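Section 5: illustrative case.
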């Protein structure tokens, strides 16, 4: 049996008396695209952040390729492990004084120890992958939100991660810019990248996801192939959530 890329067992997270995650367990297979949906406050973002230890879980464990993901060891060990997860945030978090090329190159150079020339060559290749070659020398202020997010995706890809994590990557974009980012994500999924995506873009979930997970109150309330979950949601919460979305 092939070991899943990600194995999550009984993952819990509390902030004081507030339980945000409650014993969440799931596996993600190599090349699988898992889309997580649910109302605000259901634990989706916290779950993503616990996968690569941006948040330290209160209980439970995460394994990447069978190895425990931990916030212990040397700074280099922690950085190397975290770099196995490419993380794309709602906000682009680009360095404003760097060009797009240098925003992508800085991770491979500083974390991976690549030479500046090799890092810039890799950055150029990743910018091409997200259709941003023509804008490589522009600074973030010269780019649209969708272009900035594509640079952020290229920056994550340049670290050669095992898994890409996306936290509402289109929520900060104007509606007309959303599709260009979703198209890049669709290309990554079709190319076999393992992806866990938190999103409210239901059409993307229908078209691209191998599996959709509906979270409610810090738990996985329902999961299944998109064609089944969207057509016949079984849990009352998923029924309400999807009904609400269709009436927006």
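Designed sequence:
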């Amino acid at each position: 049996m092939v070991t899943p890329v990600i194995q999550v067992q009984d993952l819990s997270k509390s902030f004081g008396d507030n339980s945000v995650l409650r014993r969440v367990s799931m596996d993600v297979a190599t090349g699988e695209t898992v889309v997580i949906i649910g109302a605000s406050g259901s634990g989706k973002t916290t779950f993503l952040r616990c996968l690569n230890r941006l948040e330290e879980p209160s209980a439970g464990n995460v394994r990447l390729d069978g190895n425990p993901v931990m916030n212990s060891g040397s700074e280099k060990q922690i950085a190397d492990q975290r770099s196995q997860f490419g993380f794309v945030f709602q906000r682009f978090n680009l360095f404003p004084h760097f060009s797009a090329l240098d925003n992508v190159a800085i991770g491979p150079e500083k974390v991976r120890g690549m030479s500046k020339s090799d890092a810039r060559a890799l950055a150029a290749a990743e910018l091409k992958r997200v259709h941003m070659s023509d804008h490589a020398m522009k600074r973030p202020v010269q780019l649209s939100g969708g272009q900035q997010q594509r640079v952020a995706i290229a920056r994550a890809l340049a670290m050669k991660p095992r898994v890409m994590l996306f936290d509402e990557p289109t929520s900060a974009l104007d509606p007309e810019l959303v599709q260009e980012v979703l198209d890049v994500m669709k290309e990554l999924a079709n190319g076999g990248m393992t992806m866990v995506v938190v999103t409210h873009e239901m059409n993307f979930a229908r078209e691209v996801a191998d599996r959709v997970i509906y979270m409610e109150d810090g738990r996985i309330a329902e999961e299944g192939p998109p064609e089944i979950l969207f057509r016949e949601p079984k849990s009352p919460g998923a029924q309400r959530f999807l009904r609400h979305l269709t009436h927006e």
